[in-house]
Amino acid sequence: MSDELAQIVAEYGGEKGALIPILQKVQERYGYLSQEAIARIAKLCRMSESEVFGVASFYAQFYFTRRGRHTIKVCLGTACHVRGGERILEEVKRELGVESGGTTDDNRFSLERVACFGSCALAPVVVIDKDVYGRMSVSKAKEVLNQYQ
Amino acid sequence: MTFAEIQKRAAAEWAKLQSSPDPRILVGAGTCGKAAGAGAVLQAIDEALRKHNAKATVIQVGCMGLCYAEPMIGIIKPGRPQIIYGSVQPETATQLIADYVVGDNPRADLALGYIGDDRIDGIPNLFDLPVLKPQVRLVLRNCGLIDPENIDHYIANGGYSGLAKALGMSPEEIIEEIKRSGLRGRGGAGFPTGQKWEFCRRAPGSEKYIVCNADEGDPGAFMNRSLLEGDPHSVLEGMVIGAYAIGANHGYIYCRAEYPLALERLRVALKQMEDYGLIGENILGSGFNFHIKIKEGAGAFVCGEETALLASIEGKRGMPRPRPPFPAISGLWGKPTNINNVETWANAALILQKGADWYAQYGTERSKGTKTFALVGKVERTGLIEVPLGITLRQIIYDIGGGILKGKKFKAVQTGGPSGGCLPASLLDSPVDYESLTAAGSIMGSGGMIVADEDTCMVDLTKYFLTFTQAESCGKCPPCRVGTRQMLDILTGIVEGRGKPGDIEQLERIAMTVKRGSLCGLGQTAPNPVLTTLRYFRDEYEAHINQKRCPALVCKELIAFYILPDKCQGCMICLRNCPVEAIKGGRRLIHVIDQSKCIKCGTCLDVCPTRFSAVVKVSGEHVEVPSQPVPVQKEEKGSEG
Prior knowledge:
The complex is a heterodimer of chains A (149) and B (641). Chain A has 149 residues and is an alpha+beta fold.
């Protein structure tokens, strides 16, 4: 892992302000930012670990624990909110037995609530991995979940 | 290549496409189109073409903005106008290929409208449809009509002529032109763009930056995403013009990572610009150098605030800092920096292409031009619209949006996202311009426009916005950090039935403190939803607090579901569907909801057959029901559903 990390950091060749893109690349590769990855990045970028963690933890995009095979994002943007996004989130939570931010025991799904995908005209919206599902209903949400194993 | 040569080449490419003997099929495949099923439609088209052994050019285009009618396709046969079909399912697409692409029946019954000069019998002109007639599509002129991944399409439609013209002008002349156009920042605050450029131009220092703010974080807004997906070059052209006018050699586009397609389209566009010498060293032989880098945001709403955005580009926590110094004097890495929103840059390109006077004919005295809005929520026709400033809210919601969904009653329209306000029916006739919206307590904002109907609880909606701003507050300054938390606590108490006298006054006091005392725009505007709903919908707060009643029947703790004994036929549908087994009953027994188990999900109300309509939702009322299931008295009127 450390070779790969060094390679990712080297790609940015000490470019100013490259920490966030580096963290994004590392997360893209490993799915999350482990404690050792953060320690290693800090060393490679000549920063303190707390500084790197401080930046990473500021942004909603970064995870510090292993993720499920699929990520479900239930949109709770304003349009989704007024069109029943909350009810869909409740249903997904109950169906999977997991809270938002959590991962199911079988590691199949991680569940997140997000604040807008910009597909508001199709509200309510659920995104699983990179697939966007619009005009969702409680029953449709259940069907969609079954397509992901 | 000179620009004239580039234009000639693009025009030839475009003409070749227009005169091609093959039909063209345009498929709206923006994020919305894809979510609505454009992928399956594309597949069906491919299969149908193969089956009929027919030749056609299939082009994926951006969004035309008629999101309610997604997925949409357009078919252009040689010598005929383009026909647009809406709500296309894979089966419809297969049918259209057989009937119109292979055959000669334009299927007027499936068409939304045509685009072009020739008429087609039985099909209206698309731009005469009520949804499009009041619109003026300047910024969105190309969206859905050109291939966003083909720079020639953009150039053949006038693209980059603004840049070519600008490079022959002095920077001061360009700034004068932008000033004369009256363009104001489309990110929401409405600062005059020309003046902003001038500050940065005049700031001392040789190293300067420009930034395109594409961190569209307002929930309920997607104007920037659509524009970047549908016509990325229009934004990039504006940026090169702005960089030249300001004297910047480096630019950044700060775009949300949640917009993968927009990011991809930008990358493709930048590569094409390089190939044509429209970016990089010595642009179009002018000696001017300009480079653009894309920065992906990492998910922080506060980064839409310009000083926070700059901190994020620098690789730091995205926290705002006090101004002055303004970024025009000391921005990115301490250098003079000019930041504009996606739509502002696209407008700048258009002004240079067509002239300030042409642009200024649209809009009002103080708010010139057009504005795009994401019209969403409880309206019939949701979508991305572009209207001249000064149009009324009523025209937008009723003429373009087609009124309220399912014929319900309008309650409020929310503009400006979490920073804006909720305006009531009495303000429907006020014009949409910067000053009028501010006077009403809201803001123009970046363009989110969310319509709420009688089924929306304004206290719950306000709590929703505060939940958002409270979570997104960066925590740097106490008025915002503590104040949003306190307001949210009070609002949560009110919607959960724990509201008490004095809450309203307390909310008002905190709201004013947060508004006056916060460091950045996020905190200064976070109280707007609270202040506007208190101003226009105070009665709803009072009902929640004094009568423990939610008039819109939304707030879970204040509502209850009952099964009416004189209507229930004992069909067991609700009983079987209840996710928590809170319904007791049996065949031909009147069902009863155990209120202590009920989670108020509303499933029973949804599934109860309309011919029975036995389930009711109430707030602050008591409904007389048996405590245990009892036999149905009357004859069953219909069979089990």
